[in-house]
Amino acid sequence: MFKIPSALVAGALVLAFSATTVLAGNDTSVGSNGTPPAPGSGGAVRVSPDPTVVDLHRTAWDHIRISPNGKRLVVYFWMGAQDCYGLGKVKVVQDGGTLRIKLWTGTRAYAQDMACIDIAQLYKTVIYLR
Fold this sequence. Notes:
By secondary structure, the chain is mainly beta. It has one domain. It contains 1 helix and 8 strands, in the order H-E-E-E-E-E-E-E-E. It has one helix at 6-12, and strands at 23-24, 45-46, 54-59, 61-66, 72-79, 85-95, 98-107, 121-128. Strands 1, 2, 4, 5 and 8 form a 5-stranded mixed sheet that branches. Strands 3-7-6 form a 3-stranded antiparallel sheet, with no helix packed on it. Strand 6 and strand 7 (98-107) form a beta hairpin. The longest helix is centred in the N-terminal third of the chain and has 7 residues, at 6-12. The two termini are 23 Å apart.
């Protein structure tokens, strides 16, 4: 489990939220035939949790960018090709002075019987804190 140190949380975030007030951003993802990620995105494709993704497993995040007001987190992670794989769910929990972020990725339901290429691609999801 990855943890953001208490000092970072205290210094960068005003945490007046609970796990039920965390919202994921809108899906602006593109498939392999879509347009490339926007300049300044670090090459990451933006995705949102998709409840139709199956065979979920925990996935480590790579890094997180925190907005100046501490209410918007951009979580970067690696996953396979978007035509076959997806972000199933995101869980954010505050435990004392620590913010815990857990990601689950899996297979798209329609892609279970497909042959998928084996690549790693950088993705990001946006979490809004209230």
